[in-house]
Amino acid sequence: MHFAPDTVDALEFAVTLCDTDPGATRSGEDELVTTEQLAALLTASRYSGRVDGDDAELRDVRATRERLRLTWALDRDAAALEVNAMLAEARALPYLMRHDGFDWHLHATAQDAPLGERIRVEVALALADVIRSDQTERLRVCAADDCTGLVLDLSRNGSKRFCGVRCGNRVNMIAFRARQEQAG
Question: Is the whole model's pTM more than 0.70, yes or no?
Fold first, then answer.
């Protein structure tokens, strides 16, 4: 599936952020507990703009993470309503911007808006593209029973089922062992 580069970036960031949730991490622990963890996530993702680095911002980003996780799993119509709500709450006004080595892309909040708000709006704009393209089936939760990781399926045939190789291999091994048991 082909989306604009800024849409892909925002969706990939949403997956990265949401997969800090304990049900999606390799460790089984929440990986967004401290302001230092948030700072490392933002640095690794090349996230720019205002960052306060305080506990209030961390709480807002954690709440954003939960809201995005819920939105990811909604059907197309419900997701559209949630996207509209996120954009309305921020009084978003889309504009094109080029900065920090990135080519022209959409923003809809000021760079000095609170971090959680900017994340919600940027992901909402990306989700709007997904919804308009009728591609919400490309947004899934990992098919592994014990994982809540998010799946962004940008493959040509739309067949990606797992958040990563680790979950895919684990599920395949369990199925293989079950077949061996039945055969033997």
Answer: yes
Q: Which amino acid is at 21?
A: D
Is the distance from CB of 51 to CB of 115 less than 8 angstroms? Answer: yes
Convert 4-25 to b/e letters by CB count within 10 Å (16 or more is b).
Answer: eebbbbbbebbbebbbbbeebb
Separation of alpha carbons 155 and 143, rounded Å: 16
Helix residue spans in the chain (DSSP H)? 5-18, 35-44, 55-72, 76-89, 115-132, 165-183
CB atoms within 10 A of CB 78: 13
pLDDT in tens, 70-124: 999 999 999 999 999 999 999 999 999 898 888 998 889 999 999 999 999 999 9
Are 19 and 11 spatial neighbours (Cβ–Cβ below 8 Å)?
no
pLDDT (tens digit, 9 = 90+) per residue, 22-41? Answer: 999 989 999 999 999 999 99
Pick from 112, 114, 117, 116: which is nearest to 92 by CA? 117
